[in-house]
Write a structure and sequence with these properties.
mainly alpha, rod-shaped
Length: 57
């Protein structure tokens, strides 16, 4: 929500170039967040708790 607010406020002030730059930067950050979340969930599902080696004492 903050990214949208900053972008809209910059556009409202007439700073169309800055609003475009902020939209691109925030867009990349949001996409990166979803990609990392996807890979974290994918790795979590692949780990099998029965397949863990135990330390022998």
């Amino acid at each position: 929500m903050t990214a949208i607010g900053v972008t809209v406020y910059l556009y409202y002030l007439g700073e169309s170039i800055l609003s475009l730059i902020s939209m691109i930067v925030f867009g990349k950050l949001i996409v990166f967040h979803f990609i990392m979340e996807y890979f974290d969930r994918k790795n979590f599902k692949q780990k099998n708790p029965q397949n863990i080696e135990r330390i022998k004492i």
